[in-house]
Design goal:
This protein is mainly alpha-helical. The chain has helices at residues 21-34, 41-54, 71-74, 76-79, 89-95, 97-101, 106-118, 152-161, 166-172, 203-207, 242-249, 254-259, 264-278, and strands at residues 6-7, 14-15, 130-131, 180-181, 191-192, 224-225, 240-241, 289-290. The protein is built from 13 helices and 8 strands. It has a two-stranded antiparallel sheet. The structure holds protoporphyrin IX containing FE, calcium ion (CA) and manganese (II) ion. Residues 177-178, 194, 196-197, 199, 201, 203-204 line the site of calcium ion. Belongs to the peroxidase family. Ligninase subfamily.
């Protein structure tokens, strides 16, 4: 191992490899300006963007896309015609100015920003970052990004064609622990997928297993199935993606999904490993340089086991795994139905979030 560090041109940082210097500076900018060291909306959307760029790849036909190559930013006008990419324009708009401020490719920017973003979320693992993605020369074909209303076998086939098993997909879906929809429900923003959208915890794996009671619209929106944690008067309840529900119950993935409930450590490992793969889809890693050192140390997990949200309980569990795996015994949060915070600081009114 090379233990010498080089002094970076910015006069502030040192790096194991000169090629990593720019990422140390970029991390500072992302943290202080773009994300404000917070696991908020902009961080969530930056993480989502890593997937929507990288999944534009097909082993069956490599002409369809270059994977994690920045094409979604470089050819935004084309790729955003795919309805599966609804909403990713916000992340692209946030990040695009950095392309002119830092000497980096669009693909590197997207994957690096996602890895820095998630470090702000309590309980996220420290992700890897390999530098050196050449800029995309053509857009990815439309139709490569899974949609929540797609049949689960179609989703698995699409993921397999990009190199991911059902287990790896479940690992990636830990991301839906810090996720809210802006586009699926008419006239609604930031509808959360679990009761703790600013904490990278296993609540998503638990709450998707609870019997549905209420959808956000009647009938449910395309890609939505009813969720258990309802809309209290003061704020909005959560929604379930049809795809998360189907993946939680498919025989290909249901036992693994269920096993992640209250297993923070295993969730972190599987998310870490699958993200390492996702970040280099379509890339020749032998030509890349490991700049993981530029990723900030993540905020540690909150020391709280998974719990049934207030007003729910084990009687609502729908378990389809037929292997004899005991389900963890979990407490139920006390009090009236859970009110899900809308801001990272715990405020329940989206209009009051610090920007
Ligand atoms: C079967 C595959 C997947 C489907 C169908 C899916 C679908 C969706 C949908 C419909 C939304 C809401 C977008 C909106 O309305 O604003 C969303 C949000 C999100 N997804 Fe996924 N997703 C999938 C996999 C992934 C993966 C692999 C990642 C990981 C990198 C990811 C990360 C996120 C994040 C972080 C958000 C939240 C964005 C925000 O809060 O603004 N998703 N996903
Ligand atoms: Ca969560
Ligand atoms: Mn959003």
């Amino acid at each position: 191992a090379n233990f010498r560090r080089v002094a970076c041109p910015d006069g502030v940082h040192t790096a194991t490899n000169e090629a990593c210097c720019v990422f140390h500076s970029l991390a500072d900018h992302l943290q202080t300006i773009t994300f404000n060291f917070t696991c908020g909306e902009d961080a969530h959307e930056a993480l989502r963007l890593t997937f929507h760029d990288a999944i534009g790849f097909s082993f069956m036909n490599e002409a369809l896309g270059g994977g994690a190559d920045g094409s979604i930013m470089i050819f935004e006008d084309t790729e955003l015609m795919d309805p599966a990419n609804n909403g990713v324009d916000d992340a692209i708009d946030n990040l695009r100015p950095l392309l002119t401020m830092f000497d980096i490719s669009a693909g590197d920017l997207i994957q690096f920003a996602g890895a820095v973003a998630v470090s702000n979320c309590p309980g996220a693992p420290k992700l890897e970052f390999m530098a050196g993605r050449p800029n995309a020369t053509h857009p990815a074909a439309l139709g490569l990004v899974p949609k929540p209303e797609d049949p689960v076998d179609m989703i698995f086939a699409r993921m397999e064609d990009a190199g991911f098993s059902p287990t790896e997909l479940v690992g990636l879906l830990a991301s839906h622990s810090i996720a809210r929809s802006d586009t699926l429900i008419d006239n609604r923003q930031a509808v959360p997928f679990d009761s703790t959208p600013f904490t990278f915890d296993t609540q998503i794996f638990l709450e998707v297993l609870l019997a549905g009671q209420e959808s956000q619209t009647l009938p449910a929106a395309a890609g939505e199935v009813a969720a258990q944690v309802p809309n209290p008067l003061v704020a909005q309840g959560e929604m379930r993606l049809q795809s998360d529900f189907a993946i939680a119950h498919s025989t290909e993935s249901n036992c693994f999904w269920q096993s992640l409930v209250n297993d923070q450590n295993n969730m972190m490992i599987h998310f870490h490993d699958a993200m390492a793969k996702l970040a280099v889809v379509g890339q020749d890693t032998s030509k890349m340089i490991d700049c993981s050192e530029a990723i900030p140390e993540p905020v540690p997990p909150v020391a709280k086991p998974a719990t049934f949200p207030a007003g729910t309980g084990p009687e609502l569990l729908q378990l389809s795994c037929t292997e004899n795996i005991p389900f963890p015994s979990l407490a139920t949060d006390p009090g009236q139905a859970t009110t899900i915070p809308e801001c990272p600081d715990g405020d329940i009114n989206l209009n009051d979030c610090p920007s």
